[in-house]
Design a protein that fits this description.
2 copies of one chain form a homodimer.
Chain A (H helix, E strand, L loop, with lengths): L8 H19 L6 H8 L13 H23 L5 H17 L2 H9 L6 H28 L7 H13 L1 H4 L8 H15 L3
Helix pairs in contact in A: 1-2, 1-5, 3-4, 3-5, 3-6, 4-6, 4-9, 6-7
Chain A binds a DNA duplex (30 and 30 nucleotides) through loops.
Chain lengths: 195, 195
DNA sequence: ACGTTAACTGAACAAATGTTCAGATCAAGC
DNA sequence: GCTTGATCTGAACATTTGTTCAGTTAACGT
């Protein structure tokens, strides 16, 4: 047997990335073998190399895609307005975005150490850019007296860490719904930086 | 060559755990080989099995030790008092404890997925116990009107996620000192649950 | 209908993995 | 000084790892 029926690169390519994302998030980059990914896709391990030069690129590409999508999505969602308004938008956007992509955040925040130096630097820049957009909001609000934060960079890190935490425990159909979770987190964040 | 000079189980045993902790935290459980751990200790791979039945137990033991130490340390540090006082104690204790043990928290919160089911359940219980002590404080404070938290379990998770974040960026000799960081985090936490 | 080529298989590769074990070596007690 | 037992080496093991590649198949343009 060789080429399967009804299979194209246009189908298999995304399937490979989806499978890798799912498995990396579930078990960690190092714990997942190319054969497991291939199995998930329904293909032999060798076929994966039609869609990625190697395993490391698979991880780096997934992380880059995620970060670029995140930055673009926030750029689109940012409605401007006063710093408190923008902060609320940011918090709700961040939670909503990641609850829709729980696997993404898992690898984006846990697999940095498995990136080779060159890839690491690239992803770190994207990450700092995203974090920077929150710092910017906090700076603007602090200048106007909306927020009382002794160090906006630290506050941004603390805020993102808190918001990210949601994906580690939130389960669809659980005790709390999305809207509730979103509002409760936003409320905590709002108060934590309040003047 | 065989037995090295001046080496005892009393020395090598802890060394093995230290090396494993350091390497697991740095690169992740799955990415670290027994030979790397042995190399760090200054011993051959086979010798590790004098101190652990297998690699999995090494991880599980490290996590259990960490959680038990954490629980014991908090039990000793908890001075009682009003809920706001206890919350402050908890926050400061948590940050201080983990800044002293950055590697521990890394594996305790990132390697859960690499535990076999039996070990996972055991560690999860310890983790819930620790988280429960924070929930308890929040419940008591909410009942007295000290805190305004719509869901104490969620608030506890959010708080711990925020506090844990400190170990991902804090570096000794950096822009901010320990005491400053501790106070800023406590201040954010205090406000985030304030009535 | 046919040839071309993209998509995939299946086997192979060297290297690395966790783990075992017979034997070598040293420290300590008699 | 000899024996004993704890401590470690070094080689071996079966598997699994990431990756390559010659060959096979099926879809598509002509």
């Amino acid at each position: 047997m060789a080429r399967k029926q009804g299979s194209h690169a246009g189908i298999t390519g995304p399937k490979v990335r989806e499978a890798a994302l799912k498995l990396f998030a579930r078990h960690g980059y190092a714990a997942v073998s190319m054969r497991q990914i291939a199995g998930e896709v329904g293909v032999q391990a060798g076929a994966l190399y039609l869609y990625t030069p190697d395993k490391q690129s698979l991880l780096a590409d997934l992380m880059r895609e995620h970060m670029e999508e995140l930055l673009a999505a926030w750029a689109a969602a940012d409605r401007g307005g006063t710093p408190p308004e923008r902060l609320e938008d940011f918090a709700r956007f961040h939670i909503r975005h990641h609850l829709d992509r729980p696997d993404n955040i898992f690898i984006a925040y846990m697999e940095l150490r498995n990136l080779e130096p060159e890839n690491f630097r690239e992803i770190e820049i994207l990450r700092n850019r995203y974090e920077g957009s929150l710092v910017e909001i906090l700076d603007a609000g602090a200048a106007r007296g909306d927020f009382a934060v002794p160090d906006t960079r630290l506050a941004a890190k603390a805020a993102i860490a808190m918001l990210n935490g949601v994906t580690t425990w939130y389960r669809e159909g659980g005790r709390l719904g999305r809207a509730e979770v979103e509002t409760i987190y936003w409320d905590m964040l709002r108060k934590s930086v309040a003047a």
